[in-house]
Write a structure and sequence with these properties.
single chain, 292 residues, alpha/beta, 2 domains, five-stranded parallel sheet, four-stranded parallel sheet, 9 strands, 18% strand, GTP-binding, P-loop_NTPase, RapZ_C, nucleotide-binding, ATP-binding
Length: 292
């Protein structure tokens, strides 16, 4: 039996994660009073109830009692109860945006600002994040991508490292992505934009990919980029980083950057030790501007 404690920042997707675990057969309990956790573990482990896996939601709603959770967890270990911690996180900017969209107040903000409540919550939950077996940063995750990661960990029992990589194409004329950790400029490559039959196509089309990758410099760039990324990934994981955005840009974000982004995604997809997705931020913007 797996006993999972689901916790994390308010607005990061804890409730959604609990629902997903429930959908795959976990018996889920949210916001159980902390003094009852030990008793709950005893019932689920030692008594013959028809439950295979347990997910227990714990968060800042515990109030002042949250400070007692560390002792509760120590008590579980002393009692021989095994548990795992799933920590849902997101950037401060994303959390603020989500609260504004839902028009909800942060549980610790009171009459103050949301960002102040988020800061206080981070401080209170820091000990849980340090103990977490799995950290999922939902800042850039779609619901289906979060479900895929949860299935990977708790259904398929695949290996997991606390790092999710987004490989992102963009156009410099639309601005560098504000959340990019690494930015690479591929405007040195020949531009398909000036080839009449390739201009309306994108880096998702084979003809454009063949044109861009026909130049030796494109392959050399890809080899060097892959080598550097593969060097950085284990070091980022060791450092505790759980979200990495690799941004590759060309002028309009339609041809060269899309092609190289797809190629890097293909190469990194061979490794299952981290979450991975590809995005093309500006691939349709030229078409939208022309239609306007």
């Amino acid at each position: 039996m797996r006993f999972v404690i689901v916790t994390g920042m308010s607005g990061a997707g804890k409730s959604t994660a609990l629902k997903m675990l429930e959908d795959v057969g976990y018996f889920c309990v949210d916001n159980l009073p902390l003094p009852l956790i030990r008793k709950f573990a005893e019932i689920t482990y030692k008594q013959s109830i028809d439950v295979n896996n347990i997910a227990l939601g714990v968060d800042i709603r515990c109030g002042q009692a949250l400070s007692e959770l560390e002792h509760v967890l120590e008590d579980l270990v002393a009692g021989g109860f095994q548990y795992e911690i799933l920590f849902l996180d997101a950037s401060d900017a994303v959390l603020v945006k989500r609260y504004k969209e839902t028009r909800r107040s942060h549980p610790l903000a009171g009459e103050g600002r949301v960002d102040q409540g988020i800061l206080e919550e981070r401080n209170k939950l820091n000990f849980l994040k340090k103990q977490a077996d799995y950290i999922l940063d939902t800042s850039q995750l779609l619901t289906r991508e979060l479900k895929s990661e949860i299935d990977k960990i708790f259904v398929k029992n695949e290996g997991f490292n606390n790092l999710f990589i987004t490989v992102l194409s963009f156009g410099f004329k639309y601005g560098i992505p504000s959340d990019a950790d690494l930015v690479f400029d591929v405007r040195f490559l020949p531009n398909p934009f000036y080839i009449d039959e390739l201009k309306p196509q994108t880096g998702n089309d084979k003809e454009v990919q063949d044109y861009v990758m026909a130049f030796d410099v494109a392959h050399e760039f890809m080899d060097k980029l892959e080598d550097m990324i593969r060097f950085l990934i284990p070091n980022y994981i060791t450092e505790g980083k759980n979200q990495l955005v690799i941004a590759i840009g060309c002028t309009g974000g339609k041809h060269r950057s899309v092609t190289l982004t797809n190629k890097l995604f293909e190469r990194l997809s061979q490794n299952k030790e981290y979450g991975l997705k590809v995005e093309h931020r500006d691939i349709q913007k030229d078409s939208i501007r022309k239609s306007i």
